[in-house]
From TrEMBL:
Reactions mediated catalytically: L-homoserine + succinyl-CoA = O-succinyl-L-homoserine + CoA
Annotated site location: Important for acyl-CoA specificity: G111
Pathway listed: Amino-acid biosynthesis; L-methionine biosynthesis via de novo pathway; O-succinyl-L-homoserine from L-homoserine: step 1/1
HAMAP family: MetA_acyltransf (MF_00295)
The protein, known as: Homoserine O-succinyltransferase
Catalytic residues (UniProt): C142 (acyl-thioester intermediate), H235 (proton acceptor), E237
CDD domains with a match to the protein in the record: GATase1_HTS
């Protein structure tokens, strides 16, 4: 089944060239089915690149997914044309009275910024609080995972001394959990963050199900027991060259970044990197859509109620 996105969204042509089934709004209007409604709060600077990455992963499902894009505020963007934002993105005030099957909150380049110093921190908190009563399942990615843990568990910001950058091996911790259905015992996933997520810390201070961990990168995947909040500390959506672009950017800014771990062939930045995490990324998003969203959401979103979800679901 397809994802439904605005007809003129730049991602449309890219996804079609990759033979991904994308349905236009015009065609979707003739379909007499109940699509999943998923909201993406895009906090990354390069909006078009990020939205395309997430749409690619959301397309790998037999479910029809109706996507809406949300921006955190109306400040001008240095990396995304104003016309694109005005055309394809909504302000929170436009959707706050509606219910959604799923919400994805992306990462943000704020690893060294304290929460209270983030210009939109209070607004982000209000959106995450709103999601408790209006969204079936929320997926927090990278920096958003740390923000979500602060909101839900009042965990303080934990920052590593050095940036974690590269592709790391992870082990599954609960092979029978629906989110891990079909996962290999070990898999690779990229990280690019300063945040620190150790298993011991999350096990001590939360009641989360720890689903996948790395000896080096710590917790990669965790979920509340009702699957209504899922935390991904890495970047399964990244393209093959995304970490390279970040590495080159940091070099150009006069920083001394370490070479991303297990990323370049022979650890040589002159060698083109190859993605080694695509299969797990597609499976993760497919499982989230199926087991955390589709299997739990009410058929009629107007009847959404937080009381419909219990920890035993």
């Amino acid at each position: 089944m397809p994802i439904k996105i605005p007809d003129q969204l730049p991602a449309s042509d890219i996804l079609r060239e990759e033979h991904i089934f994308v349905m236009t709004e015009k065609r979707a209007a003739t379909q007499n089915i109940r699509p999943l409604k998923v909201l993406i709060l895009n906090l990354m600077p390069k909006k078009i690149e990020t939205e395309t990455q997430f749409l690619r992963l959301l397309s790998n499902s037999p479910l029809q997914v109706d996507i809406e894009l949300l921006r955190i505020d109306n400040r001008p963007s240095k990396n995304t044309p104003t016309q694109h934002l005005d055309t394809f993105y909504r302000q929170f005030e436009m959707v706050k009275d509606r219910n959604f099957d799923g919400l994805i909150i992306t990462g943000a380049p704020l690893g060294l910024v304290q929460f209270e110093d983030v210009i939109y921190w209070e607004h982000l908190q209000s959106i995450m609080t709103w999601a408790k009563e209006h969204v079936t399942s929320t997926l927090y990615v990278c920096w958003a995972a740390q923000a979500g843990l602060k909101l839900l568990y009042d965990l303080p910001k934990r920052t590593r001394k050095e940036k974690l950058s590269g592709v790391y091996k992870h082990q599954t911790q609960n092979n029978y959990h629906p989110i891990l259905r079909g996962f290999d015992d070990e898999f690779l996933a990229p990280h690019s963050r300063y945040a620190d997520f150790t298993s011991e810390y999350l096990q001590t201070h939360t009641d989360l199900d720890i689903l996948a961990t790395s000896d080096v990168a710590g917790v990669y995947l965790a979920s509340t027991k009702d699957k209504r909040n899922v935390f991904v500390t890495g970047h399964p959506e990244y393209d093959a060259n995304t970490l390279h672009a970040e590495y080159v950017r940091d070099l150009s800014e006069g920083m001394e970044p370490t070479i991303p771990v297990n990323y370049y062939p022979n650890n040589n930045p002159d060698n083109p990197p190859r993605a080694s995490w695509r299969s797990h990324g597609h499976l993760l998003f497919s499982n989230w859509l199926n087991y955390c969203v589709y299997q739990q959401t009410p058929f009629d979103l107007e009847h959404f109620s937080e009381a419909n979800f219990t920890k035993d679901d």
